[in-house]
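REQUEST FORM: STRUCTURE PREDICTION
Request ID: SP-0412
Submitted by: Lab K.M.
Chain count: 1
Length (residues): 500
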Amino acid sequence: MHSEQASKQSTGKAYTREEALQLDGSDSLRHLRSEFIIPTKDDLKRKTLSLQSTLTGSQEELCVYLCGNSLGLQPRRSAGHVSDYMKAWATKGVFGHFKAHEDSIIPPFVNIDDVAAQRMAPIVGALVSEVAVMETLSADLHLMMASFYRPTQERYKIILEGKAFPSDHYAVESQIRHHGRDSEQAMILIEPLDSNRATITTSQVMATIDEHASTTALILLPGVQYYTGQYFDIQAITAHAHSHGITIGWDLAHAVGNVELELHDWDVDFAVWCSYKYLNCGPGAIGGLFVHDKHSQVDKEAIENGHEGYRPRLSGWWGGDKATRFQMGSEFVPIPGAAGFQVGNPCALAICPLLASLEIFSMASMPAVRSKSIMLTCYLEELLQRSTSRAAEDGMDELYWIITPPSTAERGAQLSIRLQPGLLEGVMMELEEQGVVVDERKPDVVRVAPAPLYNTFSEVWDFVAIFDIACRKANSKKTNNSRGSGALGGTEDKGWSLIK
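STATUS: Completed
RESULT:
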């Protein structure tokens, strides 16, 4: 229902910037933009870390930041949360773990992860007991696989997508080898049927599950695919896996804070995520995990009678029963729920920006966030298609096309744009020069992600206008150089080229 309504609202032929500004004026979430620090164009270029222009509301022109799929912008209230942490540590030392302060916006350190889990649960559609805020995504994935990948002689395979984020691929391969298995035989990779689009259909996933059901121990898939922006049908695929008795986990790095999730109701076994993308918590921010309630029960009577009484896992003291945690006993009794899968004391400092961000999410609802997101991506798609139509009228070849699925039910906030070969470097340099922040996946994909909490329709309009010019410039330079080395002009490494 959200998809249909948003599509109709966003395709009102708002082709001018003035019309884009009118869309901004009717945006019910527009007030949330002021909650974020948006870099100016000069900020991006200056060689010092001065925050004067950014924090004081300078008249410097703001950049067009459409890179929330890689790193979300900083909430203004993050600094206050971190500051209170530093003050509590400075003035109370170890007592900061247990003593609340009347003027503090953060809880005592010992409870800070519990508070974060309470605020995180609605974002992923979970019971509070099913969520833990801890570690980083890759570490959480290993912890989950240590518990949920239980290979037998008959069932030992793991199904994943062939274009999985590298860390997921590494984790799966290493877990298989850790169990003494041959990864070549145990890894089943689902490859895109169309390399130009690079997406995987739900029917293709289900057919792969059917083919390998009798020998599969685990399935790991992304909620939203990092390269294409494709949003997988988590509910349908999870149900299909369970119909074959197969455990399934989801990497929600690009889904959490982006699309509506109902992990408990969808009967997902486990999920992991990071919080530095759409959750806006900063580089390398703390991760999170979901474990369905059915997998995290603790039978204390069984434990007292010498039985395990809980799901096998890699255990650590922070996952132990709070009532006995500080008695320093050697017998591990886990906390019921996802918290029982915690290993070490979570970093209170790292949780502070998460609490700040979740306060902003609480000012809206995920359906409202998702509805605006669909409107933004539909508008972006419409303007890009109009740009290519104008280019065709000018007699130009197609310079780019969108590889993200056209259905709003099959994508999140990100549209991935594939350029003709040889254009990427020139396009990215021009975008950076004009103060536009997106990211690239070499050799030829630009990922553009309007984040509904802080991005606007006028920014989308500005991006398409600048992007169109950048593509034409890069193509002209490529054509002019075609009789030479074939290389795109310009040798200076900038921005993403340094990082990637």
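NOTES: Residues 1-11, 486-500 have pLDDT under 50 and may be disordered.
Reviewed by: T.R.
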